[in-house]
Amino acid sequence: MVDPAKQQLMGLRIVEATYQPLEKTIRTVGRIDYDERKLKQIQTKIEGWIERLYVDFTGTFVKRGGPLFSIYSPELVSAQEEYLLALQAKTRIGSSPFERVAASGRSLLEAARRRLLLWDITPEQIAELERSGTPTKTLTLISPIDGFVIEKMALEGMRVDPSMVLYKIADLSTVWVYTDIYEYELPLVKVGQEAMVRLSYYPGRTFRGRVIYLYPYLDSKTRTAKVRLELPNPSASQLKPGMFADVELKVALGKRLAVPHEAILDSGTRQIVFVESGEGRFEPKEVTLGLRVDDRHEILAGLKPGTRVVASANFFLDSESKLRESMGAMAGMAGMERMRMDKMQGMEGMGGRQ
């Protein structure tokens, strides 16, 4: 039993278990990387020799449709000649009174055109071939996207074939951020969830992204799972692959029954709070805990809303112990004082009898 005077002396604080809006913040570190969906490899579909490079160093920004290199290929020249012959044949037999003959001419021309398109010759280049009537010696390959050249293997004069990668181009309008989440946090993370990303390179600035994928396996050593975020890259070169970032994921948990974390005494096997039972009495009560959010802990079972508990269980035990020691010491001193007074009175009595 702890009467109000002792409670005040101990600095004891009582709080109620209440439903509170809880928001869990997961903090971790991430690494910026390329958006794999926006990476392009440049290869030829024909054998030949590179005659000229238009993009001759790594890091160059290229526009979609911009020239990368020109290639000479005997196969390409032959395919253009076949197309021109098919075009001439269609012109000659296109007006034939025999439909089967005219259809054959159209079919031959279409097959020759498809062959050129499959070799990445553009419709504009085919139209120019029809206009000029002369095969071009070289084919100019163009960039399929806006982006930065992140790898360049092409060299002037190099012999190339379809198996060779000549350029790698990355569109950096969006980037990915890879981060690791502990397994006990995984139930809180969902695809589509907003994430806030901060970089030391841009102090005071926050970039907003979203979770786009949760990897289906754990690292057995760190007990973490990889999470992938997508992040818009405003200037396409501001966020660079390889940068490290601080990542925050905020999880709204709704209203849940909670008490201060310090109100819980963890014995290792049980979690206990001290419940006010009236007239200065406090009883230990076992509880079942849920999530801890900052300085609060969710209560799954053991308490009802409005139950009054000691705000700091450890402080309560320490203060009560110290108070008992103090009261015991004071009682001991008082006893010694009484013994001294009794002794003095006894000596005075002996003197009077003499």
Commentary on this structure:
This protein is of the alpha+beta class and 354 residues long. It contains 5 helices and 21 strands. It has helices at residues 4-10, 74-93, 99-118, 123-132, 313-353, and strands at residues 14-16, 18-34, 39-42, 48-53, 61-62, 67-72, 138-142, 147-152, 159-160, 167-170, 174-182, 194-198, 207-219, 224-232, 244-260, 265-266, 271-278, 281-286, 288-293, 296-301, 308-310. The strands form 5 sheets. Strands 2-11-14-13-12-15 form a 6-stranded antiparallel barrel. Strands 3-10-8-5 form a 4-stranded antiparallel β-sheet, with no helix packed on it.
Search tags:
single chain; 354 residues; alpha+beta; Elongation Factor Tu (Ef-tu), domain 3; OB fold (Dihydrolipoamide Acetyltransferase, E2P); 6-stranded antiparallel barrel; 5 helices
In a nutshell, what does this entry contain?
Helix content is 28%, strand content 39%. With 354 residues, the protein is an alpha+beta fold.
